[in-house]
Amino acid sequence: MIRHRLLACALALILPWSAQANPALQAVIDANLDQIERPSRQTVGPLVDQIAATGPEGLAMLQAWADRSLGLTETGQVLIMDDDTATDAVTGDTVAGADPRMLRPNSGVRGVIEAALAAGALTDPDPARRAAALQSLERGAAPDQLPLLRAALDDPDPVLAARKARLERLLTIQHDPDSAARVAAIEEMAGDVGLDFRAALNPLLVTRAVVAPDTPPGANVARELTPGDAGLTREAALAQLVQQDLLQPPLSGADQRAALAANITDGAVAGVPVDQLSDQAARDRAYQALEAAGAVPPAATETEIQAALDASRFFEVYAEPDPAVTDAAKAAQIRAQVRLGAMTGIDLGLDALSLASIYFLAAIGLAVTFGVMRVINMAHGEFIMMGAYTAYTVQTVIADRTLSLVVALPLAFAVTALAGVVLYRLVVRHLANRPLETLLATFGVSIALQQLAKNIFGTQARPLTAPAWLEGSITVNDVIGISAIRVAIFVLALLFLGLFLFIMKRTRLGLEVRAVTQNPGMAASMGINPDRIAMMTFGLGSGIAGIAGVAIGLFAQVTSEIGQQYIVQSFMTVVVGGVGNIWGTLAGATLIGGLSKVIEFMNPANTLAAQTFMILFIIIFIQFRPRGIIPQRGRAAEA
Predict the structure, then answer these.
(1) Which residues contact 14 (CB under 8 A, 6 or more apart)?
(2) Maximum C-alpha span of the chain
(3) Could you report the per-residue pLDDT of 555-601, keeping only the tens digit for each?
């Protein structure tokens, strides 16, 4: 579509002068009619340059040729076809009733034409066309297009100007005949980790194997190798000798003995007595004699092999002949690799923080209930599931994704908090100070809630679509990037951390929760109802789990088992961080998230192994710190 608009614009420019023919273009067409009809990628370049030099009419013809909308009549008239309208490429006149034969250049010819058009469009007033031309050159530019790019470096658009400057540096590295200019360009971009820069460096450092009696004159030697070292095995050295016709294919000991046994005559082989063939040198002499007589195929004996190895030196020679260029490229590549490693670490750290925020958001509610009530709530994962399904239900009612998310967050908190209060009133409060019975009861509730969700929503995953402003990712460069949803979850985790600290430190509810946590009996004697505080705390923890379900559902599949995928990590986070301590939960989530990403990075093909190693780490960790990273202190720890 864009090409058709460009073609229409070009035709509009030449139509006012349609009465005037372009004699230069007509002359080029007349002289190269066969080449236009049957172009070849190897020879069409000069013709394309001649047509482009004839002016707007020539550029319009090239664009039509590249778009396969150029036709040729039996009389040799070149027409530009736009749907059913035929226009003379030379004069711009409309030709009625034309039935030309359409020209279909192959992809190679079209590439040459498009490159020529791109070079000419670098200074076009239309920024969209300049961008398209620059993109064409970025896909592949010829050496003769470097001067055209340098002449068009000034651009009113700062983004296009930066892209042009970068492409000019890359093409200088690849195609400039001046080695000093290439070295300067490499040093200027040294440390860059862009894929395009690394791709430009790689061909400069390609090596080939060379075998010679001495250092090849004029060769840019990367290193000399010794057969038998780690860089060049003896077998690889022999293969190079054979490949360069410096040695016959080696003969194995078994093949040599078989050939000698097959040529025993009167107790000797080629004049060498059989009783002397226990010596390797005698076997080599016998085989060489048989080879000279044509009785066996030519092959290198061990003596010949050793002689060839002693007489030869093995080199790795750069394909790039200039040592200054390869030295600069090696230094730049080392800097790029160091910086790439650092950026990979930063990217891994961002992934770890993202995963830690998810674990923290999923575990904070569990930390609240377990810290205050010492209740192991096995239905905590199902509160996460309820939050995710609440968001899905809201999204089916409210089409606007942003508005649905704004409504879903508080609604999920309210629904799951209410469910938590109901669970506490009906089950948990009757099993106070009986942890085993509470664990079994909440586990049964967990199974019942999963089955209820399957009955209502089915077993298939339900989509929870993020708003448009949460789609995509925040990308710093080719290495560092993080999805916008994970950034939002990280911010949400920080907000809930601040909200929780505010409730616990600045509100009466927080004061009463801390009092009940430290000494329930003393708190009751001061007029605080421990049962009411426990109920409100259980509801608060369940509501936060619902918020976590909304966040997790934005990037994970919403199913009845979504909570089970995070319940184990939530318990590990609470145990490792320190029971009943919000800062311990944060530290545990950071440790588990970071360690999980490191293990996955070291063994990306086996996620099960990562989980196994994580559990082993937890087992070892609690042997040394059974109360967690940041344990509770004072009366709360003694309770």
Answers:
(1) 56, 57, 60, 92
(2) 120
(3) 888 888 888 878 888 888 888 887 767 888 888 888 888 888 888 88
